[in-house]
Structures are given as C-alpha cells and as structure tokens.
Specification:
Elements: H1 9-40, H2 54-85, E1 90-95, E2 100-105, E3 108-114, E4 127-130, E5 133-135, E6 151-153, E7 160-163, E8 176-178, H3 180-187, E9 195-199, E10 206-208, H4 236-252, H5 261-264, H6 277-285, E11 329-334, E12 339-344, E13 347-353, E14 355-356, E15 365-373, E16 380-387, H7 415-420, E17 422-423, H8 426-433, E18 441-445, E19 461-462
Parallel strand pairs: 1-9, 7-8, 11-18
Antiparallel strand pairs: 1-2, 2-3, 4-9, 4-19, 5-6, 6-7, 10-16, 11-12, 12-13, 14-17, 15-16, 15-18
C-alpha cells in the first residue's frame, strides 16, 4: 500500500483530542471566571476596578466603620469631659497674637479654641474683664441685627464673646468670635462673673503663696467689750405692770402723751430688760429712733455708673449692715489713684487710701485669684497672671535739626514685688478677710479704674 493511500489516523485522533482538551479548558476557565465575577460584582452593577484581595477587602471597611464610630462618639465625650473638668474657678484667656482662647479651671487648662478678634481700626481692647451678661439668641443692635448667638458680654460698650465666622485671623469689629461648637459649649459652662483676660501675647496662671495675700477669716469680730454685771430679769407680770404704769402716768400728767423712749428710760420701763422684743416694739411705737450707721457724709451725689458710690470711711459703714450681693469679692488696687476698691456681686462695697513703696516705680498689672481653701480651712490657694505691658507708643520721626529724646522705661515689678510694695490699712484687711471665699480676686495695677467699670460690672482694667 502506498504511503499516500494510508489513512492518517494518528494525526486525526491527536487533532481531535487536542481540540477537545482546549474546549474543555476554555469551558472550565469561562465557568470559573463567571463564578468569580458573580461573587465580586453584582450583575446589576457597572463593572469597576479590580476587587481587592479578601484580606484587604475585609480589613478596609472594618477599619472605616470603627473610625466613623469612634469619631461620632468622641465629640460628645470630649464635650462631657470639658464640662466635668470645669468644676473649679473658671478663667478665660484670649491671646490676640495667637488668635486663641484658653479656658482654665483652677489654673489648669481644660479647653482651647480658635478665635477671631478685631481688625485694625476696630481692635479688641486688652485688659481685665469679666462676663457681665449672657444671651443665647442675641442679635446685634449696632450691625444690622446680625446674629451673635451664645453671646457673653464683657463690656457694656459692645465687646463680647459670641458665635461667628472664624477665619485664620482678625475679622471682627472688636468682639471675640468663636466657632459655633465651642461657643455653645463654653456658654453652658461659664457663669456671670467669670474672669476674662485679653492680652496681645499670652499669659498663664502660676501658683503663688505670699503672707500679704488675704486669708479667710469668717469669724473675725470687733474686740469684745467687757460684759456688764447681769441683772435679774423682771417677770412677765412686772413688765406688764410697768407698761400699764406708764400709760396711767401719761393719762394723768399733761404732756406725757408725747413721751419718747428716752423719757421712758427714767420711768418704770427700767423694770423691763433692755432688748425685750415686745417692749422694744412698744418703744418704737412711741417714737424711739432706730439705730443707724454712722458714716462720713458724702456731699457729692453719686453719678450713674460711678464705681465709687461707697464712701471712704474705714469705720463702721453701711456696707457692714446692709446685705451684700452674692458672688465672690473683688479687690482692685490702683497706683494711679492711690486707693483700694472693693466690689461684690457687681456692686461697690467700700474704698480706702493705700500707700506704695517706691511710688514712682511701675507695678505692672497682676491678677491674683483664690481658687480653693487648703486643708486648714483658713488659708486660700492662689494663682496669679501677670499681664504683659501694652503696646509701646509710636516713635516720633526726628525733624531736621532737632534731637529726639528717647524715653527710658523701667521694667514693672513681678507679682511678689507688687504685693510687697502695697501698704493696706489693717482695718481694710480685716473687713476684706471676712468676705473672702474661693473665686475672690485681687488686681494690682498701675492703671486707674476704667470708664467701663460701672453699674452691673466687676472691675474693668484696660491695658490698651
């Protein structure tokens, strides 16, 4: 048989087997691909990027979910933590150079926030202030009824902390703008009277101990007078007989109907013990004058908003007899005015002259705050913030042919030296000690009382 006539069986079987194997392989690959695709992307979705490996695919959503939950739970928790830490004496410090607010509790920082203060031409004043009004839904009565929610006023002339737009820099007309979240949070924590300090630089509370700082002496009383020899108390029957005896005498003798308590002291009233409530009432009924405080007469009427409405007498004055407003006591010592002023509950109590060692040397401005009582219940724990000086005066340009004199400035005293240089009358120290409590403050400054200080304010000291 010729080679050309032999059937090519081997080649045909090999070809058929190869084709079958390729078909089976393609079918298996197609089925596997369809199965994988069905698991990776739903059929009703548009094809997207290749799926990640299972480990990466399972880890990424899990991490994202946890981060989202943590972020959602951190915000209220942080707010609750600040409120929980704000249990002490609160102080707000605003740094204009940093455009930052720091909230302190008992001298420890508990919160920070960005702020936006006044632009040039409408600068935010620097100095010592306090919160004098709060309004949740306040609107400006100057700038087109603009909303200023969570407002906390620090001057009656229009400076306040409130919610507003806070860009990266000054942008207000003098107010201190806060982000909404922080404005709401701080508004719910602070109270009227909270100290607010605005400086160009930055200040930090520092613990201080000094024997010249006021102590807590609630039981201080005037020197005891020698007790009179006790007299036997008259019986009730004797008191009644004495009263009727006076009435009979007044009816029988002409002119006795107008008898006063001083006349009655020479009559059977002596049978009654002085101070008896019933007989005292009868004595007032016939014209006995009530005891009043003896004060130095003030011939000048107090002007509206004048902080010095209390007279300067250091003896018994009306402030020791009338009830004082609640709130910590504030003391301000001014080198400019040579006086010590006392306020409580936004109202003046009294003021007295003081003297200074080296009166020509500057003291600076220092704010001392009593934050808590120590274990002995008489000694107060104090901190102090010494404020940097105000902006220096602009240097005058030298005119042709004229010399310019350069002023030599003397550095201000530190807080301890400022305390040691002030001489306070002992009587004033005793009276202030009876009013001391945590939250009380002492301000020593070269400045005088600002015109912003008045009715419904604590001491406002402007440093610029």
């Amino acid at each position: 048989m010729q080679k050309s006539q032999r059937p090519n069986r081997g080649h045909s079987v090999y070809s058929r087997n190869r084709e079958a194997l390729l078909a089976m392989t393609a079918t298996a690959a197609l089925l596997t691909g369809l199965s994988t695709s069905a698991n990776a992307v739903p059929l009703n979705m548009q094809p997207g990027p290749a799926p990640l490996p299972d480990a990466a695919r399972s880890a990424k959503p899990k991490a994202t979910v946890l981060a989202s939950r943590d972020k959602a739970s951190t915000k209220p928790k942080e707010s609750e933590d600040v409120a929980a830490r704000a249990k002490g004496v609160l102080t707000v410090v605003v740094s204009i150079s940093k455009q930052q607010l720091t909230l302190y509790s008992d001298g420890q920082p508990i919160a920070h926030s960005r702020v936006s203060t006044g632009v040039p031409g409408h600068a935010t004043p620097t100095g010592v202030f306090s919160v004098i009004q709060k309004d949740r839904w306040h609107h400006s009565n100057i700038y087109s009824n603009a909303p200023m929610y969570y407002m906390q006023r620090i001057t009656w002339s229009g400076v306040a902390m409130h919610q507003g737009v806070v860009p990266n820099g000054p942008a207000s007309h003098g107010c201190i703008r806060l982000p909404e979240a922080f404005a709401r949070q701080m508004w719910g924590i602070t109270k009227l009277g909270a100290r607010v300090i605005v400086t160009y630089g930055d200040v930090t509370p520092v613990a201080i101990a000094n024997d010249r700082l006021f102590t807590f002496k609630p039981d201080v009383k005037p020197e005891a007078q020698p007790e009179a020899t006790p007299q036997p108390e008259a019986s009730s029957a004797d008191k009644i007989k004495a009263a009727y005896g006076i009435l009979e005498t007044a009816q029988l003798q002409p002119g006795m109907g107008n008898m006063t308590a001083s006349d009655a002291s020479k009559s059977p009233w002596d049978a009654a013990k002085p101070g008896d409530r019933a007989l005292d009432a009868m004595a007032f009924a016939v014209g006995a004058p009530r005891q009043t405080a003896v004060t130095t007469p003030d011939t000048k009427p107090a002007a509206a908003g004048n902080p010095r409405v209390a007279n300067t007498a250091t003896n018994t004055t009306v402030d020791e007899l009338r009830p004082l407003k609640p709130g910590p006591v504030s003391v301000f010592i001014s080198r400019k005015e040579g006086k010590l002023f006392v306020r409580k509950g936004f109202e003046p109590v009294f003021d007295v002259p003081v003297t200074f060692e080296q009166p020509d040397q500057p003291l600076g401005t220092h704010v001392f705050t009593a934050v808590a009582l120590k274990d002995d219940n008489t000694t107060l724990r104090w901190n102090v913030m010494s404020m940097p000086g105000g902006a220096s005066a602009p240097v005058k340009k030298a005119e042709k042919g004229k010399k310019v004199e350069v002023a030599v400035t003397t550095p201000a005293s530190n807080a301890t030296d400022a305390l040691n240089r002030v001489n306070i009358p002992q009587d004033a120290i005793d009276r202030i000690s009876r009013l001391m409590s945590p939250g009380a403050s002492l301000i020593i400054s070269d400045k005088g009382i600002s015109g912003e200080t008045g009715k419904g304010t604590d001491f406002i000291v402007l440093t610029r």
